[in-house]
Amino acid sequence: MSVEAANNVGLWKFENRPNFADAYAGCNIYASINIDRRNQLLKGVFKDHTWEWMVDFLKDIYGAEKVLELIDEQFFALPRFSDIRQFGDKLTRVKQWTGSEYKDMLKVWLAGLAPLLKGHPNYLKFLKLVTDFILIAGYHSHTETTLRYLQDALHGISRNIHLFLPYRHNQSISKIPKIHSLFHYIECIKEMGSADNSDTEVSEAAHKNLIKDGYRASNKVDYIPKMLRWETR
Question: pTM of the predicted model, to two decimals?
Answer without folding.
Answer: 0.78
